Each structure stands twice: as structure tokens, then as C-alpha cells.
Amino acid sequence: MPDYRRWYLPGGTFFFTLVCYGRRPLFGDPSVCALLGDVMRELRDELPFESIAACLLPDHLHAIWQLPAGDSDYSGRWKEIKSRFTERWLAGGGTELPVSESRRKRGERGVWQRRFWEHTIQDESDLEIRFDYVHYNPVKHGYVRRPWDWEHSTFRHYVAIGHYHKDWGETRPPKLAGLDFE
Predict the structure, then answer these.
(1) Which segment of 34-48, 113-127, 160-174 scores lowest on mean pLDDT?
(2) Is 37's pLDDT higher than 60?
(3) Domain limits of the chain?
(4) Would you say residue 182 has pLDDT above 70?
(5) Cβ–Cβ under 8 Å, residues 154 and 55
(6) What burial class does residue 1 get, using C-beta atoms within 10 Å of its C-beta: 0-12 exposed, 13-18 middle, 19+ buried?
(7) Which of 29, 113, 115, 159 has its CA 20 to 30 A from that of 94?
(8) 13-176 is classed in which CATH architecture?
């Protein structure tokens, strides 16, 4: 049995990857993207976290969050986001992929892959690498030629405040070479 260990650092900053069940491209539909955004903002109001960066691709998403001082429960937040999204998606006429009986008995649905991948940000350099990775991901997967062309990302916000140039990422940034977190 796999040994899943997570580092729960109160007030920490974390990089996440969440994947749709069966790599189904749920988020190719803008209304589904909007639903996930609504659920995440709603939960952020209830259980605060700072969303530093995010990118939603058709079959997965990446995010970087910082939790409040003294709080390390990112797992609870993601569980609630996935649960609320699934309930609303299905109630609105969405469908799920079939799951095994054993998974169904554990309460799993055919909308999200179980669990998620997380990485605790170690320092400013680590944050900048993952920050760039989040924004470069649509280019990596061949959806667009440059991050500016991808709508479901925080990239445009960071261009607006001067962190990136609009044409950043037309070529693979050197510090991302060899990084494949998905």
C-alpha cells in the first residue's frame, strides 16, 4: 500500500496539481470553469487562503496557495472544493465516469481523481520556478503558443501588474527545463 505523506506547514505556501477522473476534459467548457471558480471563491471566504497563482486546463489544474498563519489544512480545503464542485456539477446535469464498486463504497465519484499532488514551497527561488510552471503549462501541453493566449490562468493579472511581459513564455523558460510536475 502506498505511503502518502504530506508536509503540513502552518502558514505555508504550497503548489498543487489536481486531475479530473480519467483525464476527462471537463474544463474545456467555460461554464464548468466558472462553476469551479465560484466554488473556490466561496470556500476561500469560509476558510481563507491566498491564491497566488492558478491555471485551469481541460483535464487538470495547478494552483499555488498560501495559508493563514497557524493553519495547515489545505487537504480539507481541497476535499471540500472537490466535493462541492462534484455536487453542483452533477445537480446541474453533469455526468460522471463509472468507478469501481470499491471506490464507490469509499464515497469516490467519477469526476476527480482521488487525492492530489502537493509540494511545499521551500524558498523564493522554488516559488518562482513553480509560479512560472503554472503559467507556462498551457504552452507545455500545446494548447497555446504563449501563456498570454490562455484565458483560464492568473498570467494576465501578473502581466497587468508588471511581473511578466505579455510575450513571456513564447520559448520555454530555461529554469523550467526538465521540470514535469504535469
Answers:
(1) 160-174
(2) yes
(3) 13-176
(4) no
(5) yes
(6) exposed
(7) 115
(8) 2-Layer Sandwich (3.30)
